[in-house]
Every structure is written in C-alpha cells, then in structure tokens.
Input
Amino acid sequence: MGEMDYKCLRNEDSEVYELVAKEGNRQLTQINLIPSENICSEAVMESTGSILTNKYAEGYANKRYYQGNEFVDKVELLAIERAKKLFGAEHVNVQPNSGSPANMAVYFGLLEYGDKIMALNLMHGGHLTHGCKVNFSGKLYNFIEYGVEEDGFLDMDKIREIALKEKPKLIVCGFTAYPRKINFKKFAEIAREVEAYSMADISHIAGLIASGVHENPIPYFDVVTTTTHKTLRGPRSAIIMCKESLGKKIDKAVFPGLQGGPHEHVIAAKAVAFKEAMSDEFKVYSKQVVKNAKVLADSLMSEGISLVSNGTDNHLILIDLIKSLGAKGLGRDVAIALEETGIITNCNTIPFDPSTPFRPSGIRIGTPFVTTMGMKEQEMKKIGQLMALVIKNYQDDEVKAKVGKEVKEIFSCGLDSNVFKA
Ligand code: DSN
Output
C-alpha cells in the first residue's frame, strides 16, 4: 500500500488536513476491533476521491435525465456486472448510498405502509432498520420480532412457528450482532411456506460470503442487501441484489422513489472493491478474519470471559459482561476503559439484556480491521489476554497503563500501515 499524501488538502485547508492526519494516526496506533469497520484499499479511496463526483446522472445507464453519461454509464454497468459475478445475483442495483437507504428501498418497493415484517429483535442482534421503534422501519411498518434462545442461537423451528402464526409479508434475516452461521436455506423455506418475500441483509458478512467462507443466500432469497464497507472492504456504501422479477420494483424504489443523483464516484469504488473481492488474496484474507475471530474468542474464554453463544463462526464476538463480571449495564464503562488502553470496541446489548441500549451489558468486537492490518493468531491470543485483564480491572488505572504499553508493543512489529499516512 502506497502513501496518501493529501498534498492539496494540506495546502488549502490545514484545519481539515490536521484532523484527517490525526485520525490516520489514531487508526494506525490503536487496535480497532469494531466488527463493522475495515481498511479499504488505496484504489478504492482514489475512486471515491475521483472526478466522477462532479457528474449528475439521475436515472439508470442509458436512461438518464442528464447528458454526458458516456463514461459514468460504463462505470455503473461495470459495477453491476462485477457484483452479479461476485455473488451470483440475477439483478443488482448499485445506487443505494448506504445500508439504511438500501433496506428502506426494499420495504418501499415491495410493501405497503403498515404491512407486517418479521425480523430479529434489535436487543438480540437485529439492526435499526429491522423494525426498531424509533427508526422509520418501526414507525411505518408493523414489525413482528423473533429472538435468539438462552444459548444465544436462533431456533429455526420457533421462527417457523412465529411465521406460521403471524403470516408476515416479508421475513428479514441477516444481523449486526450475531456471531453464528445463519441458516439461510431454512429462512427462505419458511418465507416460501407463508408466502412472504425473503430478504437477507448480509452487511456484516458480505466479504465472508463473497469468499465462500459463509453460505450465500442469493440462490434462495428474493432480495439481498449489503453495505460494501464492512467485511467486503469497499467504500462506505451499499447495494441491493434481487431476483430478476423484482428488479423493476427495486430500481423504481431507489430512483425516483428515494434517491436523486447516484454517487458515481462511490459506484466506481464499489466496482473496484468487487474486483478485489474476486481475488485469491481476498479469499485468504476472509479465511484469516474467521480464524482470527476464533482465536480471539478462545483466548478471551480461556481467561474467564463469557461470550454470547460461547464462541463465534464468523468475524464477530459478543462479550457477555453480566456473566463475566456479575453486574449489568457495564458495557459503556468497559468500552471506555479499553479505549484508554488503545483497544477500540463498541458497547452493545446482549440477548435478554436487563439494562438499556445506552448502558448495555455487552461488548461487540470483530477482526476485519486488524486482519487487514496483517495481524494473525499470535496477536489475537495476546489481544484476548490483554482485553480480559482490562475487563476484569476496568477501574484500575495501573492495570490500564500496563496494558496500554503492551498495546503499543504490538504495533512495533512492523504491520503494513502506509495507507494511514497523511
Ligand atoms: N453501524 C453498523 C454496525 O456497526 O454494525 C450497522 O449499521
């Protein structure tokens, strides 16, 4: 990875430049375990920073409301073709600006307001757009929840029972805090049985799916949405994939339904990311993400830290602080203590959390970012030990100072970091 020098920004706007430089340094010198973050390539960044940002292209390729689309049409068609090839999709819309608008477009395109949708409870690992009461989804549609069991796993028989009783118009799966494999085939079967549309939001695991490390829902599902910047390691954006028969409805919902001019510079970056994700190197990377998560989970558990579902099958780990520390609502305090040592995580609810989303009882972590940095099993084992020490002593400044020093040592082993230079 080469050096981003931000020469023009530095000359023109030192205030913004300084902040970008400081953020670059922060990313380089902390252990980032936020499971939804990653480090995209310089080619992806050059595309998002390209002159394609100057172009308006409302509509779709060869059917635009502005002239001058000779090249952006080609860019958009290339992104679509690559996404189809990468995931095996029949129809792809690459215009959604991010994950929430992508999900919104699916509901808007396929349903009427007030229709019944079945999705995982937010506290159990669902997403805001999967029916949270303060989100547009929970306000405009009638969401029916399913949850995980006491052991942290989904019970597909119970989910089927709820679907048979409730007869939703749409069943949503794909989660933001579920560390286990998803039985996509079974979800799609249940949806078919109750004559509901099926939708998988694979934002978290898209990179693992593209690499064959997790089962692909595309063959079974009506619609699959994903962000492109998590395990997929592309720009901050999203796409919608669907059966050909639903393509027109989805396209109409995105434009003119919800969005105006597509961000062609980001669409170009998505095309680049899809090409990268087809490489052998990316498959090796995805396998390492999962290996690293397993080693990190084992390391934490062997130090006496409890995890929801006792482990992980993917890139993500959910720490249960109630079982680990015997008290509820400590997620925020522990996440702050970890940050003081240079370990970046996010506090998160755990299933059946007796506390609140603002003071939840869990910590959510993952390995996409540190794996891109080049960290492997050895570092994961060490990070698990250091995290356990901080979790058990989150109010002890001496322990935190000692761990902070050790975190710095992990970075002294020469990880590939040029991408952060500003
Ligand atoms: N904010 C994302 C995540 O961290 O999982 C979901 O939108």
